[in-house]
From TrEMBL, chain A:
<keyword id="KW-0862">Zinc</keyword>
<feature type="domain" description="Toprim">
    <location>
        <begin position="83"/>
        <end position="178"/>
    </location>
</feature>
<dbReference type="Pfam" id="PF02132">
    <property type="entry name" value="RecR_ZnF"/>
</dbReference>
<comment type="similarity">
    <text>Belongs to the RecR family.</text>
</comment>
<keyword id="KW-0227">DNA damage</keyword>
<dbReference type="GO" id="GO:0006281">
    <property type="term" value="P:DNA repair"/>
</dbReference>
<comment type="function">
    <text>May play a role in DNA repair. It seems to be involved in an RecBC-independent recombinational process of DNA repair. It may act with RecF and RecO.</text>
</comment>
<dbReference type="InterPro" id="IPR006171">
    <property type="entry name" value="TOPRIM_dom"/>
</dbReference>
<dbReference type="InterPro" id="IPR023627">
    <property type="entry name" value="Rcmb_RecR"/>
</dbReference>
From TrEMBL, chain B:
<keyword id="KW-0234">DNA repair</keyword>
<keyword id="KW-0963">Cytoplasm</keyword>
<dbReference type="InterPro" id="IPR027417">
    <property type="entry name" value="P-loop_NTPase"/>
</dbReference>
<dbReference type="InterPro" id="IPR001238">
    <property type="entry name" value="DNA-binding_RecF"/>
</dbReference>
<feature type="binding site">
    <location>
        <begin position="44"/>
        <end position="51"/>
    </location>
    <ligand>
        <name>ATP</name>
    </ligand>
</feature>
<dbReference type="GO" id="GO:0006260">
    <property type="term" value="P:DNA replication"/>
</dbReference>
<dbReference type="GO" id="GO:0006302">
    <property type="term" value="P:double-strand break repair"/>
</dbReference>
<dbReference type="InterPro" id="IPR003395">
    <property type="entry name" value="RecF/RecN/SMC_N"/>
</dbReference>
<dbReference type="InterPro" id="IPR003593">
    <property type="entry name" value="AAA+_ATPase"/>
</dbReference>
Length: 201, 391
């Protein structure tokens, strides 16, 4: 399809959609077409929702979560345990943990991982605010819920080091057999990690 | 590892390529070969495309194949945009289809790497192929292995380790990445605590790599000692050397890791000036001597070096069969050229005894005249290969 056959407004919509994660140019065209065919039921509500979200979205100044209020609803929830702090790489990870209802603790979003090859250093991440939060006291445990990748683990090492002087205990997520997983299908590294970090039954 | 292998067989399961198909691969627009024999010889003049066939099979294992070629170089000249290799693998009574291919990226597009398929389904990483087969090779480019740079011997050793321990590949890639990260941090004068974090991860991978190599060398040495008596191929004495190796002696892995971390920390100034990391398993060397005479391999004749290398790879084949539970497939490029008739016969006999499938090349059909039955010989020319009857 030639671009000149479509009006510039539609072309702009397609270009923006194509920048969404998981959408390429082809699927962006399909999504745009789908939206335009359902102008009243989908396109206009989406436009309104997008505008409202754009006006209301705030990054929590305490933990880095994305919400419509600051501090975010997790940070202001009185039922949350203020003594437990869960450190995650991105907001997506926070949401995943919330979806699972995995913790009653509060969060701290780093905004990425240390990666010298991508030029991302400690100052590019929310590490200094984390250290300040823990140093202010009242936190017994810091749980490093970062990915089990080289970058994730390097970042975990760095943070552990930075928190060494504080009173908080630093823990990390277990590495090993996934729930419902069969040993037969696990790679050797995961099996070895699971064996190393076995726990009393 | 696979569900085969440790399933309680008394011996390793024989694994062989039964059908090999190529499309737009180097000199072959399209080719389909049935390889119904354990020993297969491809015969033809220089440049006929014999090695291309072995290269195609070598791409059924992780890495860039026995020529270490860029994927774009493999494309057949004359407008081809994608190449593919597919094979039907026979193990015991079962068959598995393996396939791999690469497509030239569209202008402005990015290289998607090579695609690997097992039984028609894409797999995320070529490492999955190691569940199905192990491949070892000897090429003329390895003739200088014992006299050439340490890097070549290290790569040779790492391939041996990978055939025993499939985790070695991932570990090595992560190590390389961390090494590049550390060098970058030193160059940029990053905070010491950041270097600490990278070095901690680096040390863990580095020690694991060194231990895996040491284990393979020990296992291999044991095999060589067991089997070399009366063999036509001299026994190799193997040892790992380098500044890093002494760190390993007489300590637990955790202690070595700590010692390596300390050494990295203390060596930062030196490494910053050198613009690279001077201590680590990436600088180790594989030292090879003639076990009987304790003569360094590098000092002997070309023919003797070749015999030593063949002996080493045969011992490795034996080890791989024992540890993985599958017989490896051997790719032996121009193998017979440097061997006298006695050694040639001994090689064929040894391959038969190991029960492996071996694909060999040579310019002269006479080299494979005494291929033990059931052997298969192909004449390779003009982008095709035809069986030679009446061997």
């Amino acid at each position: 399809m030639k671009t000149s056959t479509i009006g510039p407004e539609i072309e702009r919509l397609i270009q923006l959609l194509a920048r969404l994660p998981g959408l390429g140019p082809r699927s962006a065209r399909r999504a745009a077409l789908h939206l335009m065919k359902r102008r009243e039921s989908l396109l206009e509500p989406l436009a309104r929702a997008t505008a409202e979200a754009a006006a209301a979205v705030k990054v929590c100044s305490v933990c880095g979560n994305v919400d419509t209020r600051d501090p975010c609803s997790v940070c202001t929830d009185p039922r949350r345990d203020p003594a437990t702090l869960v450190v995650v790489e991105d907001v997506g990870d926070l949401w995943a943990l919330e979806r699972a209802g995995a913790t009653r603790g509060r969060y701290h979003v780093l905004g990425g991982t240390l990666s010298p090859l991508d030029g991302i250093g400690p100052d590019d991440l929310s590490i200094a605010p984390l250290v300040a939060r823990v140093a202010a006291g009242g936190i017994d445990e810091v749980i490093l819920a970062v990915n089990a990748t080289v970058e994730g683990q390097t970042t975990a090492h760095y943070i552990t080091d930075q928190l060494a002087g504080t009173a908080a205990r630093v823990t990390r997520l277990a590495h090993g057999v996934p729930v419902g997983g069969e040993l037969d299908y696990l790679d050797d590294g995961t099996l070895a990690a699971a064996m190393r970090s076995r726990t009393p039954f | 590892m696979s569900d085969r292998g440790q399933a309680g067989h008394s011996g390793p399961e024989p694994v062989a390529v039964r059908v090999l198909k190529l499309s737009d691969f180097r000199s072959y627009p399209s080719l389909s070969l049935r390889l119904d024999a354990p020993l297969v010889a491809f015969v033809g003049p220089n440049g006929a495309g014999k090695t291309n066939l072995l290269e195609a099979v070598s791409l059924l294992t992780p890495g860039r194949g026995l020529r270490r070629a860029a994927y774009g170089e493999i494309l057949r000249l004359g407008g081809a945009e994608r190449w593919a290799v597919s094979a039907v693998l026979e193990h015991g009574a079962a068959e598995t289809r393996l396939g791999t291919g690469w497509e030239r990226p569209a202008p402005g597009g990015s290289d998607q790497g090579r695609i690997v398929r097992v039984d028609g389904a894409d797999v995320p990483s070529a490492e999955a192929l190691l569940d199905h087969l192990r491949i070892l090779w000897i090429t003329p480019a390895m003739d200088g292995l014992f006299t050439g740079p340490a890097g070549d011997r290290r790569r040779f050793l790492d391939r041996l380790v990978l055939a025993v321990d499939p985790e070695h590949g991932r570990r090595s890639r992560e190590f390389e990445r961390l090494l590049t990260s550390r060098n970058r941090l030193l160059e940029e004068g990053a905070a010491s605590s950041w270097c600490d974090a990278v070095e901690a991860e680096l040390a863990g991978r580095g020690v694991a790599i060194a231990l895996a190599r040491a284990e393979t060398v020990a296992l291999l040495s044991a095999r060589i000692a067991e089997r070399s008596a009366g063999s036509a191929f001299p026994a190799a004495g193997l040892s790992l050397t380098g500044e890093f190796e002494p760190l390993l002696a007489g300590r637990s892995a955790a202690e070595v890791e700590l010692a390596y971390r300390r050494a990295l920390r203390d060596g930062r100034e030196r490494d910053r000036a050198a613009r690279r990391t001077l201590l680590g398993p990436h600088r180790s060397d594989l030292d090879v001597v003639f076990a009987e005479k304790a003569v360094p391999a590098a000092l002997s004749s070309t023919g003797e070096q070749k015999a030593l290398l063949i002996g080493l790879v045969l011992a490795q084949a034996d080890l791989v069969a024992a540890t993985s539970g599958m017989t490896p497939i051997l790719l032996l490029d121009e193998i017979a050229a440097h061997l006298d008739p006695n050694r040639r016969a001994a090689l064929f006999a040894r391959l038969s005894a190991l029960g492996v499938q071996a694909l060999m090349t040579g310019t002269d059909p006479l080299l494979f005249e005494h291929l033990p039955e059931p052997g298969l010989r192909f004449r390779v020319e003009d982008g095709g290969a035809a069986p030679i009857r009446g061997a």
